[in-house]
Amino acid sequence: MDSASGAGPKAMGPGGSGTSLRTEHLLWMRHLIEAGEAGSGARTMMLPGGIVTRRRGRGLETDDIRPFLYGDDVRHIDRNTTARTGRLHVRTFRDERERSVLLVADFRPSMLFGTKRAFRSVAAAEALTLAGWRVAGQGGRVGVFAGTGRETFFHRPGAGDRAMKAVAGRLAAAHAAALAATGIVEDPPLATILESAARALPHDGTLLVATALDHPGAEFDAVMRDIAHKAAIDVLLVADPFEIETPPGSYPYLSAGGRRETGEVSGRPATRDVDRRLRRLELLGARTLLLDASLPPLDLAGLIEGFDARRR
């Protein structure tokens, strides 16, 4: 159960193996987004008649001043706040008509698991990338915050193909780092990742989180309520088919000490634990979507399209 069965190149796209991520695979996924969407750089203005126009450059209105994160543009360092606090701070800017989405990828050790097509971490990255391409194609701004349990990978929200290329690169690098990490037995709290990501979110933006909700942490509910009070938060709950419906049988597994052992499973009702996690997220103010990690990218694209349409 610690590996996913591979799918052919036609099913996975360039560089897709089910257990690892390549930038080329995530860039290829752009072609799964419906062809009718506006191209990058085309913005539909919020005026009667749906006038389409192009706007260049960034907005001039200051959105926020926050601590400097790796990947921020040094030209936007706020000197006054930096001098006052002794820590680097940057200004962020916005255009009132732009939608900003920060993709949050949970790449902690428990996400590196899969029994069929792909690891949960791979399916999470694919779904986030598909959502990112949709937002970018509609003229929005997209960034990424990926947490491996040991380090984080961040790229501030930007517009168009250039931003999505950076997002794909960060996701691939973060996933490679997660696979290469050793010595981590238990996940650090998910709440810590969400709290850090929320600090990097532009004002009135949306956090789109892909996670299995393993080991959320004691502060998770409080962190989620705080985020939901300030911004929109959507959660893609990623589940392996084994979690959705567990067939009875004898299954090998690795113990906490790294030993190979075998356990008997009598089977359990489908989706019971998954449904409980969905309800918990919804009660905390999040919109949710259940993603089966075994679904091929084309099916994931359809789910993401429907989820995005529900917002409108």
Describe this structure in words.
With 312 residues, the chain is α/β, with parallel strands linked by helices. It is built from ten helices and twelve strands. The protein has two domains: 32 residues, no CATH class; 214 residues, Rossmann fold. The strands form four sheets. The protein has a six-stranded mixed beta sheet, with helices on both faces. Helix 7 links the parallel strand 8 and strand 9. The N terminus is likely disordered. Pfam families: DUF58. This is DUF58 domain-containing protein. InterPro entries: DUF58 (IPR002881).
What can be said about this structure in brief?
The chain contains ten helices and twelve strands. The chain has 312 residues and is an alpha/beta fold.
How are the SSEs placed, and which strands pair?
Elements lengths: L8 H4 L10 H6 L13 E3 L7 E3 L6 E7 L11 H7 L3 E6 L5 E7 L13 H18 L3 E7 L4 E8 H21 L9 H10 L6 E6 L8 H11 L1 E8 L1 H4 L4 E6 L5 E6 L6 H12 L3 E6 L4 H15 L1
Helix pairs in contact: 4-5, 4-10, 6-7
Core attributes:
Rossmann fold; 312 residues; disordered N terminus; six-stranded mixed beta sheet; 2 domains; two-stranded antiparallel sheet; 35% helix; DUF58; DUF58 domain-containing protein; alpha/beta
